[in-house]
Specification:
With about 425 residues, the chain is mainly alpha-helical. The longest helix is centred in the N-terminal third of the chain and has 35 residues. The protein is about 70% helix and about 5% strand. The protein binds zinc ion. The site of zinc ion has 4 residues, from helix 9 and helix 14. Zinc ion binds next to helix 9 and helix 14.
């Protein structure tokens, strides 16, 4: 077994370092490409986007890339410190002081781990909000709101996380040889439960949601919903402007309780025609079953993961390869899985991103049937301009990461659909 675990150590290290190198390389490409196009607005946008806004978007993109490089380095060092560096072992030993090998010590272990990771990442969050977003005029958050969000987030995560982890550890300890199957059922049920309570219980802890009051807009949206055969639990406006001037719209919940939420920033900056077109795009994701397909995908992939977790419990090489002690402990098994797996999943990212981009094109095509394509184009250009999103991404960077196709590609297809 010593041989196998040595091999796993090298393979893991290779994947961790390769993933970090690929991330840094792609980000460098993105910076170079965006900078090389900074001098002039792409032809298709030259009427709607002034040079000044285009250059702001370039500077904003480059600043975000540089920060993401710092994050990549910090996360890589953190992962190596947790595993090879022995931090997980140390946290485990501390948690064992409370009570040995039961659910309580497991909760202490994950609590300490969560606090440790949060503390390491906090400076990046602070920098992003109060320096980067502030510099480009997007941050609307006061330090006191940041602190309030931080603590509410911590408490909510602690409560939800403790219930879930306690349940998971309990199943692992008591459900016998096929525990991973029950653990999967528990995880899926828990996920659906969180989705269900999120719009009415969790989200209102952070934001205020008020029913959409603009009658003209409301009437048009209800008309569109009816035309598309969509049942909703209500139209809401969220006070997103308390934190940021970035605009958005989303769906939340499921079944008949689905809510449509607009950021106030979106409502304020877009015409009723544009909002209707944006909503038609979002409805496309539902009508074309993108949401359902992604949920099924998540359910199946998580079953595979739990199966892997079950197999991991039988063999010590991954555990030892990551330099982890306490083989046989359920908490340590979860930690080995949680930190051991992601570097191997990194290469699936472009495949998944390509699938998401295909969905975006389909939702655009659906929207163009329900509302005028030219309104969606107008809304897209405005969103890109107001959010300072780059119009000239690097091809490889975009292929690897982007869940949405570049603006130029989406607009070109929408224009083609108008002829
Ligand atoms: Zn979409």
């Amino acid at each position: 077994m010593i041989m196998m675990s040595n091999i796993f150590s090298y393979v893991f290290l290779f994947f961790v370092l390769s993933a970090a190198s690929i991330k840094l390389w792609l980000s460098w490409r993105q910076i170079v490409t965006v900078k090389s196009h900074e001098g002039s607005v792409p032809k298709a946008f030259s009427e709607d986007i002034p040079l000044e806004a285009h250059q702001k978007a370039a500077n904003y993109t480059v600043a975000k890339m540089k920060l993401s490089n710092v994050s990549t380095v910090i996360d890589t060092v953190l992962l190596l410190a947790l595993t090879f560096g022995g931090v997980l072992n140390w946290l485990f030993e501390v948690s064992e002081l409370t009570s040995q090998g039961n659910i309580l010590s497991g909760l202490v272990f994950f609590g300490l781990l969560g606090l440790f990771i949060t503390a390491v990442q906090l400076p990046i969050d602070l920098y992003k909000t109060f320096i980067l977003e502030e510099k480009f005029g997007f941050n609307k958050m006061s330090p006191s709101l940041f602190i309030k969000d931080f603590f509410i987030g911590l408490v909510v995560t602690a409560v939800i996380g403790s219930v879930f982890i306690a349940g998971l550890l309990w199943v692992m300890e008591t459900a016998g040889i096929n525990w991973w199957w029950y653990a999967w059922l528990l995880a899926i049920s828990f996920w659906f439960f969180i989705q269900y309570i999120s719009p009415t219980v969790l989200a209102p802890m952070f934001n205020k949601f008020s029913p959409l009051e603009n009658d003209n807009l409301k009437e048009r949206i209800e008309g569109l919903l009816k035309k598309c055969g969509f049942q909703s639990g209500g139209l809401f406006v969220m006070d997103g402007s308390r934190r940021s001037s970035h605009g958005n719209a989303y769906f939340t919940g499921f079944g008949k309780s689905k809510r449509i939420v607009f950021f106030d920033t979106l409502i304020n900056k877009h015409s009723a025609d544009e909002i209707e077109a944006v909503l038609a795009h979002e409805l496309g994701h539902f009508k074309l079953r993108h949401v359902l397909k992604l949920t099924c995908f998540m359910v199946i992939v998580s079953l595979v993961f739990f199966g892997l977790l079950g197999a991991l419990q039988q063999s010590a090489f991954v555990h030892e390869g990551l330099n982890l002690k306490a083989f046989g402990s359920s908490s340590m098994l979860l930690a080995a899985f949680y930190f051991g797996l992601p570097p191997f999943l990194f290469l699936f990212r472009p495949v998944f991103a390509a699938y998401l981009r295909k969905n975006e094109f389909e939702a655009d095509a659906y929207a163009a049937q329900q509302a005028p394509a030219k309104e969606l184009i107008k809304a897209l250009i405005k969103l890109y301009k107001d959010n300072s999103s780059t119009l000239t991404p690097d091809k490889l960077y975009s292929a690897f990461y982007d869940s949405h196709p570049p603006a130029s590609a989406r607009i070109a297809r929408l224009e083609a659909s108008m002829n």
